[in-house]
Each structure stands twice: as C-alpha cells, then as structure tokens.
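A.,

Following up on our hallway conversation. Structure tokens first:
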C-alpha cells in the first residue's frame, strides 16, 4: 500500500483509515475545482476497501453512478460493506490492467495506485480510453522525499533510508508522482492541474500518528528482509517514543500530488 511501499502490512487498518482522513481533503478540493459532482459517473480504479468510493457515491448522489475496480477480492468485499446498499454504487474484483473498464466515464479516480504498478503507462492509456471526450482523470500519488522528523534523529532517518533502499530494490519508485504529469500527457490527455500537499504535525496529531504507523508497521518487513535486527528495532522504537516526548518535535509527511488531466473533446 502506498506510504508503506514495502508491501502488505499486518494490522494496517488504522493506518489506512488515518491515511484516508489525512489525504482526502486536498483530493475533494480538486474535485470541487474540476466540477466532479452531482449526477456524474465516476470510476475508482484500485479502490481498495472503498473509503474514497463511499465519499464519491454520496458526492454524485442518486442521479450519478460510481464503480470501483479492485484486484483483491477481500478488499472488494470490504468496499461493498462500506458502500452498504447505495443502489448507484458498485464494486467488482478485477485487474485494472486487463479487465474491461467500460467507456464514457465523466471522471476516473486513481489514488495511490499508479506508483505500485510495474507499468503505469499501460494503465493510464486504458483510463484515457475509458473517459468520455472532456472527461477528467484525477490521480493522487506520492513523492516520499519530504518524509522527515525534527529535530533530526539519526536512528529514525537511517531506518527511512533502509526502507527506501528496499523499496528501490523491489522496483518501487518512491518518487513516482513526479513522473505522472508527463505520463498523462503521453496518453493524449490535457493537463489541467498539479497540486502538491504536505502535512506537518506535532506528536499526537493525525499527521504524526499516520507517519508513526507508516514507519513502525514496516518493521516486520525490514526484519523479514534481514535489514533490521532485534536490537536496532528496540533502538528505533525508543528513538521514536523519545522524539514524541520532545515539546518541539515535528513530523513532515511525504508529499501527495493531485494531478488532473482531461481527455480532449475531439
Ligand atoms: C495503496 S492501495 C490504495 C487503495 C485506495 N485507492 C485508497 O486510496 O485507499 C493500492 C490498491 O491498488 C490495488 N491494485 C494494485 N494493482 C492493481 C491491479 N492491477 N488491478 C486492480 N487493483 C490493483 C491494490 O490491491 C490496492 O488495494
């Protein structure tokens, strides 16, 4: 999952709920600016457990339609449960790289998905073809560079570097969002806006708690890869707890960029 680039994490539900809350606002602001609202048809590709899909369903209302495509059947079940019995909202288990995506969508949303795909360009071309002329593709994805703590802490910083190294070795680009505007243009779309957002927060804030989980939930993955021994894990946990007691501590999140592009009218 994005911001945990090292793969699926155990006990990740709270982190994902906080993630949605933290990054939802800037995406919703973009949808307001772009006029993605009442009565429109919206496809959410890689919809995960459906938190955003539910927001979209209430946003477009009964005159609109929303549909989620998600590869993981367990998450599709979760998305259906999240949607409840909204008649104009559906979710299906399918691979966005191969399944028919339909056509004529007013808007397609893709949040924290393209950066985990081996070949995002193929997906973007498919999304472009599934939009109606004048329809808009809205992507939210991450640049991890800004993820940092203050006052700087050597143990925490070196663990972030280790995470980044492992992600890179596994072919995951932690700066993926930076390449997406050009990829959207390359698929024949017209770029409408590019809006970055970084949160900063004190200990206990939503940004702090989400960064804490994003880091600490990855430790089992580092352990399994042989990149963190028990002693270092204790040291890291102690360093994070100590930083949280500092009255002037601050965390900066990764940057999430919202990128919107339209399919030309003809
Ligand atoms: C980081 S999660 C983001 C989930 C959701 N968009 C959100 O913002 O909460 C990435 C999601 O993309 C899904 N995914 C990855 N590759 C996919 C594919 N080829 N087809 C469909 N879903 C895919 C994953 O299963 C996962 O649920």
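Then the amino acids I'd put at each of the 266 positions:
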């Amino acid at each position: 999952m994005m911001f945990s680039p090292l793969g699926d994490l155990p006990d990740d539900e709270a982190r994902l709920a906080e993630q949605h809350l933290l990054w939802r606002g800037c995406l919703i602001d973009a949808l307001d600016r772009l006029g993605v609202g009442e009565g429109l048809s919206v496809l959410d590709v890689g919809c995960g457990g459906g938190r955003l899909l539910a927001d979209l369903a209430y946003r477009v209302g009964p005159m609109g339609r929303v549909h989620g495509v998600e590869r993981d059947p367990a998450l599709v079940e979760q998305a259906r449960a999240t949607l409840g019995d909204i008649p104009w909202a559906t979710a299906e288990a399918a691979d966005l790289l191969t399944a028919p995506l339909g056509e004529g969508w007013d808007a397609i949303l893709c949040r924290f998905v393209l950066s985990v795909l081996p070949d995002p360009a193929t997906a973007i071309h498919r999304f472009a073809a599934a939009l109606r002329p004048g329809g808009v593709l809205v992507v939210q994805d991450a640049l991890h560079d800004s993820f940092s703590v203050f006052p700087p802490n050597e143990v925490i910083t070196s663990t972030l570097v280790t995470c980044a190294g492992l992600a890179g070795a596994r072919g995951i680009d932690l700066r993926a969002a930076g390449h997406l505007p050009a990829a959207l243009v390359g698929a024949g779309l017209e770029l409408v806006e590019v809006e970055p957002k970084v949160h900063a927060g004190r200990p206990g804030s939503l940004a702090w708690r989400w960064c804490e989980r994003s880091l600490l939930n990855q430790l089992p993955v580092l352990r399994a890869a042989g990149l963190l021994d028990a002693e270092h894990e204790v040291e890291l946990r102690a360093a994070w707890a100590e930083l949280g007691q500092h009255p002037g501590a601050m965390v900066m999140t990764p940057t999430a960029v919202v990128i919107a592009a339209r399919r030309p009218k003809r």
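The chain is about 40% helix and 25% strand. Curious whether your intuition agrees with the design.

B.
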